[in-house]
């Protein structure tokens, strides 16, 4: 569901080795029906799927075993009507979406026992309708929303591995999400709030570098308070690994600059609310959340007006 | 010293009633020597001073009794060489500058006993070289840097009152500065960091309104910790009095948009450092300070490049 770069890539890889994959598409539907799906990569041969099971609605697809959810979290409300036609008693929902709150959103509506989540570490871009360019990485971490991994968790990871994707199973999905947020909260946020700058420009400014560390400390405090302790040294590790990335533009900045919706709530909003609920004074996160929320809302209006 | 709108207005009013006022000027020097100084007002008759004692250096002026300092705080380092030629044993230095740290800066270099400070509540604009437009208000609060008011404090206030300015003496100048910062820190800062918006737009956004309150709480906490307690209710009062101001653009935003230096250190930097020194976790202020610092630095470069 949601066949942008992420959905088309992972779905396409599974279809390429013979799995029965159905794609829910919107913008690219006609093109993909006509011309199929193309996965290009700087690391492996191009995959072209000439015939793709592509649909414009989930009613046409009907009940399935696994739903891979790759919609942007800003469209989560659409899931309430999109998902029901796909369900049978044993359907598993796997969210590949960013940030916090997506598993909980699905669990509340469709039952916690159905829900798995995955974190994607991959550089992808949809360069044209039905054409996905893969620039590097591709690993995926899969876990259950509630409790440790199960047979189905390992089965799904094995299917992905068979298709050539580096897939690993994690026993504490939420801690993995927090680990990713330790990076996303400061870098995605400051890249927007400090005027549209990349990670190298953030780290080159002593004030912003200090603010990155402060935001990481607050994120680690919320993670710990909600039962997902991560060692403090992880902040240093996340900063150190950012230097070699050079002038990297976080995905939220690319969305912001292009006038696309930014996943404000699943990255900053939900973390902030969990921090407040835990009684922690997360002042830096509060400032960043409300500033990014305002800046992205204004930008979206501007962008719409110029279309 | 520093004959922009503030310096020209207060200096001009004193000169108009016969005080021996010498103006240090830069950009407007030739025009004022040729055409004099004009103070226009929506509230009182125009004052035109055809002959003005205007100078390009403080060496030409020589020792004086009172130095009125109206330079932008971003030029404070220039004071180290500008002030010494003006000093005799009894010279008083009065800073009309914004924010924190200006009295301390002068005290360190020229002796604390010389220093007075003043807060100006006035709407002025330099509309052309040598022409100042007064839009309203004009009150000035004067106090000693160290200790309560003295005879000289009252004498200076009396001279200003005689010239038609509403001048009052305060016994705790630093508390007055903190009271002003309770407004300036959130509103001037968020007007820049939230994308160039006015006070009405800030208050219309629930997240930013909450952030205003959080920043005010942090400011009050620093003020209290540094010996200048202000009742918590002052925050509500400052917010309530902002609504009737309508779509007001804080002076820092006007400077930012015009590509002029913004007084980052005297508004956010010095407050932040005093908060850190007092051991308070001022996360919202830290975020705002470092973001505004970066945004204004970038803006200044852009603005210079386009000249």
3D architecture notes:
The two termini of chain A are 27 Å apart. In chain A, 48% of the residues lie in helices and 17% in strands. Chain A folds into 2 domains: 5-171, 3-Layer(aba) Sandwich (Rossmann fold); 175-306, N-(1-d-carboxylethyl)-l-norvaline Dehydrogenase, domain 2 (Orthogonal Bundle), CATH 1.10.1040. In chain A, the strands form 2 sheets. In chain A, strands 2, 3, 5, 6, 7, 8 and 9 form a 7-stranded mixed sheet that branches. In chain A, strands 1-4 form a two-stranded parallel sheet. The mean pLDDT of chain A is 94. With 307 residues, chain A is α/β, with parallel strands linked by helices. In chain A, α7 runs antiparallel to α9 (206-225). The longest helix of chain A has 23 residues, at 283-305. The interface between A and B is medium-sized, with 28 and 28 residues.
Mean pLDDT of chain A: 94
Model regions low in confidence, pLDDT < 50 over at least 5 residues of chain A: none
Q: Proportion of β residues of chain A?
A: 15-25%
- The CATH C-level class name of the largest domain in chain A: Alpha Beta
CATH H-tier superfamily of the largest domain in chain A: NAD(P)-binding Rossmann-like Domain
**Quaternary state of the chains:** homodimer
How far apart the termini of chain A lie comes to 27 Å
Could you describe the largest sheet of chain A, including whether it forms a barrel?
Answer: 7 strands, mixed
- Strand pairing plus helix content of chain A: what structural class? alpha/beta
Quantity of strands of chain A, as a count = 9
Largest interface: A-B, 28 and 28 residues
């Amino acid at each position: 569901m949601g066949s942008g770069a992420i959905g088309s890539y992972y779905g396409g890889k599974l279809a390429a080795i013979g799995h029965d994959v159905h794609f829910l598409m919107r913008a690219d539907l006609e093109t993909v029906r006509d011309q199929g799906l193309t996965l290009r990569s700087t690391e492996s041969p191009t995959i072209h799927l000439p015939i793709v099971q592509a649909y414009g609605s989930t009613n046409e697809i009907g009940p399935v075993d696994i739903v891979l959810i790759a919609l942007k979290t800003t469209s989560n409300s659409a899931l309430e009507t999109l998902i029901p036609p796909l369900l049978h008693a044993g359907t598993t929902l796997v969210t590949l979406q960013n940030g916090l709150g997506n598993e909980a959103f699905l669990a509340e509506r469709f039952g916690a026992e159905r829900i798995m989540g995955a974190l994607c570490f991959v550089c992808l871009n949809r360069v044209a309708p039905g054409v996905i360019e893969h620039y590097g990485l591709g690993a995926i971490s899969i876990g259950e929303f509630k409790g440790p991994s199960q047979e189905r968790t390992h089965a799904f990871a094995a299917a992905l591995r068979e298709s050539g994707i580096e897939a690993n199973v994690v026993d504490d999905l939420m801690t993995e999400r927090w680990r990713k947020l330790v990076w996303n909260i400061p870098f995605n946020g400051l890249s927007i709030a400090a005027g549209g700058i990349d990670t190298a420009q953030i780290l080159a400014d002593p004030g912003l570098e200090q603010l990155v560390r402060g935001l990481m400390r607050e994120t680690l405090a919320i993670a710990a308070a909600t039962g997902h302790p991560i060692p403090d040294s992880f902040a240093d590790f996340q900063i150190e690994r950012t230097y070699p990335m050079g002038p990297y533009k976080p995905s939220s900045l690319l969305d912001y600059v292009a006038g696309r919706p930014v996943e404000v709530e699943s990255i900053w909003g939900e973390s902030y609310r969990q921090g407040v609920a835990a009684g922690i004074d997360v002042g830096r996160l509060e400032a960043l959340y409300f500033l990014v929320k305002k800046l992205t809302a204004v930008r979206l209006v501007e962008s719409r007006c110029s279309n």
